[in-house]
Amino acid sequence: MKPPTAAQRRIIEAADPETGRLSGTQAQLTALVRARLAFRHPRPPHAYFLSPAGHRVRDEAARQPAQAPPPPEPAADPGVFTARTGTETSVTGSEGAARAREVRGAWEGLLELRRMTNKDGARDRPCAWERTHLVQAAALALEAAGLPPARPGREGYEVTETPQPEAVAVREPSPEGLRACAEALERAGWQTGEHAAQRGGGRYLLASPRRT
């Protein structure tokens, strides 16, 4: 396999940090597919995502020490998808039907990543990427299930890190909402357990990606 060109590396490094979704011209994306660094999702809108080889190229670039001071960061692209964890202090980006389409596309891309990277091609079990992006992966599973994240002035789920390896905490103020979160995560291939909060009362979930 030929090493990627400088232009291809820039596209790979700019891929969505959560889903690996790529942006570029049709010719650039097609060239990445030919180089086996990307794949085209079979379902509309037929977005392009990093392949396992593309992820390795990006990871190698991230591990390399910087050779010069980095340039100023560009303004955040409002079109880049980010799973909502419910801990945001403000909400940006699309809403309504447009947001639903973005969530659906990100979830389908994650299922395809599972198929390509799990040794048995399983789509019902979390993959290695999810185990290294626990909060984002759990939040995406909840949002893809149609559950509302918390936001200023509105109750909903919150996903946060925990000191435990491969576990996130999921909080939802209502018992019904917490059960709905548990069911959605379990359908998405996670295992959950309900616990009593030590402070402030209430209950929360500990959720971990299932391995088998």
UniProtKB/TrEMBL annotation:
Region of interest (Disordered), ranges: 1-23, 46-80, 147-175, 192-212
Protein name per UniProt: Uncharacterized protein
Organism per entry: Streptomyces anatolicus
